[in-house]
Amino acid sequence: MQPAEQRDEVEMLWLMLLIRRFEERASQQYQAQKIGGFCHLYIGQEAVVAGAIAAIRFDDYIITAYRDHAHALARGTSANACMAELFGKDTGCSRGLGGSMHFFDKEHHMYGGHAIVGAHVPLACGLAFACKYRNEDRVTLCFFGDGAINQGAFHEALNLAALFKLPVIFICENNLFAMGTSVERSTSLKQIVDRAEGYDIPGCVVDGMNFRHVRDTLSEVVESIRKDPHPAFVEVRTYRYRGHSMSDPASYRTKEQLEKYRLDDPITRLRAQLTREGKLTNEKFDELDKEAKRIALESVKFAEQSDEPPLEKLYDYTYV
Amino acid sequence: MQMREITYRQALNEALAEELARDPNVFLMGEEVAEYNGAYKVSQGLLERFGPKRIIDTPISENGFAGLGVGAAMVGLRPIIEFMTFSFSLVAFDQVVNNAPNMLTMSGGQFNIPITFRGPNGPAHQLGATHSHATECLYASVPGLKVCTPATPRDAKGLLKTAVRDNNPVLVLESELLYSSKGMVEPAETELLIPLGEAEVKREGSDVTIVCYAQTVALALAVAEKLEDEDISAEVLDLRSIKPLDERAIYDSVAKTHRVVIVEQDRPFCGVGAEVCYRIQKNIFDELDAPIGRVSQEDVPMPYNERLEKAVLPNAEKLIAAVKKVCYA
């Protein structure tokens, strides 16, 4: 993988397409009951993770909440390993033991996949603490939703990060709803980014439907942290097209609202920008999309054909 | 080898200092551990010796700093997280129970968490309900955690050092009432490591086995002395670790004495003694000559009043009565 500034925008558009097509397949397979438990889709939010990944180096750390398929794919975990995990197979990125909400990939510096809202924000501080302890210039990206900002763990973590000057970026993927509860009904602040001010952490707001805005803003933040370790907070305004999870019909919001965001689709937007600038043809786009669909479909086949984790290994992962 | 007499507190301090000196990945974090030298002075002098990078004071944010420790352990540091008391670990319960022990399984074996959580556990003296929790039954029930409960300075040093080197999350449950107690320990330059999951016969006997740990070991030893006058020979078996549990040592002792009393600082309902009792009857029922006796706390939140607190806790009178009952004496 290339460092941030060299990451090609067409490549990142391709990543966003891969995420979307993968999630569509996951949705289909969930409905076919091939996937168990809970399954939270990322569709609509692709520019957030793509823009963030484009702003960091491969050896930087990322950690996120339960809506995590996209983050693993963005880090370079294969679609096969991701789909196999959803199917609970031994070839999954967590050997079928984690499931949708617990994707891990050490090799690609993906530190989970955490399903207790807000509980991974202190972990992100720990990752960043370790970097500082070892005098490394890595940055930790910590993703979470707007629901996490009212959890105690989140507040404790922000205070610790500020106090210890930890190189961590708190990225709030504000998709307007914590499950079915809107931000206005859950949060006393007018805007989420103001949470950061309470801890003397610099914050900014980013248009999460705009890949370039996410990437460029985060690149600046990352650069400043590498020079002088400190935490930062980025509120990314985005939208999920689907319900909170597969079992949520999202009846708490209007069709008009959904349509408004669909018209501002992050993939369509980046595609239009690139096409306008002569960096992308319709043929090339179709080719990319076809390839993304093929990989997503292949991943289903791979997952279906993979073995279950062996029963004899049930006790192998409790202690090392 | 010249053994020396040191306090439980000093023994823990030596263990911390030795492990910090041995491995640069080890750091100590918690409330008042650095500049104040520890709420119970266990970390006395460590800031001066190892500096603020490795001996780190935190705000009162147990969930936050316990979680920070788990995150740092994901990438190979070996945090020692001090809880001022394990009663306060309850506000970090999610980190200790959900994040530290689950990570290895959830990640399909990719992330082990080499972290030590330590601090005083169990009732002390008139601290009231919120500050008197015996948490061993809560934590020992969680797959992925290891729990040890040193009763002597020697065990405190040896078990803590082993805990720091273990590649899994380990809880070292100390005791406020034991910090000033004294005992013989190998000289500082001798490497003292006591394996987790190894009980120790603290006193040999032939008529009855008293299974105990932590604060109740001294009680069991004192009671065993008294019972000698009444011609009852009690063996005192200190579990030292709750999880892993040294079942072999329990069965060996019971096979010898055929009678057991478990005495614990824990709660009666779903407590450690309940588990030990179940395993004994399941595995060596035929060796038993009497129903298993058990002395634990009473099933009430801890009262502040001194007389009532004493009534809640195990004591010599209750233990002697329980031993006599199983001995039909």
Explained architecture:
The complex is a heterodimer of chains A (320) and B (329). With 320 residues, chain A is an alpha/beta fold. Helices cover 44% and strands 11% of the residues of chain A. In chain A, the strands form two sheets. Chain A has a six-stranded parallel β-sheet with strand order 2-1-3-4-8-7, sandwiched between helices. In chain A, β7 (203-207), α9 and β8 (232-237) form a beta-alpha-beta unit. Chain B has two domains: 4-185, Thiamin diphosphate (ThDP)-binding fold, Pyr/PP domains (Rossmann fold, 3-Layer(aba) Sandwich); 200-326, Rossmann fold (3-Layer(aba) Sandwich), CATH 3.40.50.920. Chain B has helices at residues 8-22, 46-50, 62-74, 93-99, 103-106, 136-140, 153-165, 215-228, 247-257, 272-284, 306-312, 316-326; strands at 4-7, 26-30, 55-57, 78-82, 116-120, 146-148, 170-174, 182-185, 200-203, 208-212, 234-238, 241-243, 260-263, 293-295. The A-B interface holds A 61, 63, 92-98, 102, 104-106, 111-114, 116, 119-131, 133, 152-153, 156-157, 159-160, 163, 316-320 and B 27, 53, 58-59, 61, 63-77, 79, 94-95, 98-99, 101, 103-112, 143-144, 146, 167-168.
Topology of this structure?
The complex is a heterodimer of chains A (320) and B (329).
Chain A: H1 9-31, H2 46-53, E1 61-64, H3 69-75, H4 79-86, E2 110-113, H5 120-133, E3 140-145, H6 152-163, E4 168-174, E5 177-178, E6 181-182, H7 183-186, H8 194-197, E7 203-207, H9 211-227, E8 232-237, H10 255-263, H11 266-276, H12 282-305
Parallel strand pairs in A: 1-2, 1-3, 3-4, 4-8, 7-8
Antiparallel strand pairs in A: 5-6
Helix pairs in contact in A: 1-2, 1-3, 1-11, 1-12, 2-3, 2-9, 4-12, 5-6
Chain B: E1 4-7, H1 8-22, E2 26-30, H2 46-50, E3 55-57, H3 62-74, E4 78-82, H4 93-99, H5 103-106, E5 116-120, H6 136-140, E6 146-148, H7 153-165, E7 170-174, E8 182-185, E9 200-203, E10 208-212, H8 215-228, E11 234-238, E12 241-243, H9 247-257, E13 260-263, H10 272-284, E14 293-295, H11 306-312, H12 316-326
Parallel strand pairs in B: 2-3, 2-4, 4-5, 5-7, 6-7, 10-11, 10-13, 13-14
Antiparallel strand pairs in B: 1-8, 6-12, 9-11
